[in-house]
Amino acid sequence: MPVAITVPEPNTWRELLRALDDNAAAFPLQGLRIAVQEYGVTNSDLLAGLAERGAQVSSVPVYEWALPEDTRPLRLAIAAITRHEIDVILFTTATQVDHLLLLATEMQPGVDLRPAYSRMVVASIGPTTSERLRECGIVPDLEPTHPKMGYLVSEAAQRSAEILQRKRSEA
To answer: 13-21 — which CB contacts under 8 Å span 24+ positions?
Structure first.
């Protein structure tokens, strides 16, 4: 398929709708049937935004994120977080946030991991994941310059010591 519109980074639904608005004269959505492939979570804002622009929108769930059968590694990580044994945590999807908090609550009903996050670096791959973290009361300390895994790992490695020192001196 030829590319008709290029969406700028960080390539979220907001940039997509803005790019469509900026190109509305050349590519009007009124009356078009648009299928949105979902990556495990429905983006109601995107679907509504496309519909508001006159499109007939269908969501197509391609796959759904699920916890693995063996959740022991994640449970061990949660226990280490609560004991303040982890200095840096990287989130690459909003679903990871949900799964971590779900298992933490299962392990210890009423557990609040936010105090632990105040003593560690919370790194988010991009705006969508950062938004979910904030919705859960977790403030991300860094987001890479480009929403890609390599940038996330590299920038977390470069900046974590300084962020840890600042956060722990404030505590």
So the answer is: 13/43, 13/45, 13/46, 13/49, 14/127, 16/46, 17/46, 17/49, 17/50, 17/53, 20/50, 20/53, 21/53
DSSP state of 12: -
The answer to whether the pTM exceeds 0.90 is no
Q: Where are the beta strands (DSSP E) in 6-163?
A: 33-38, 56-61, 88-91, 121-124
Give how far Cα 58 sits from Cα of 95, 108, 121, 141, 144, Å: 22, 39, 39, 36, 32
- List residues bridging with 123 in a β-sheet: 90, 142
**99: three-class secondary structure by DSSP:** helix
Q: What integer pLDDT is reported at residue 125 of this predicted model?
A: 97
Q: Is the backbone peptide bond immediately before 68 cis, with ω within 30 degrees of 0?
A: no
pLDDT in tens, 130-145: 999 999 999 999 999 9
CB atoms within 10 A of CB 52: 11
Nearest to residue 164, comparing CAs of 142, 131, 135, 136? 142
**Which domains are delineated in the chain?**
13-61 (no CATH), 72-170 (3.40.50.10090)
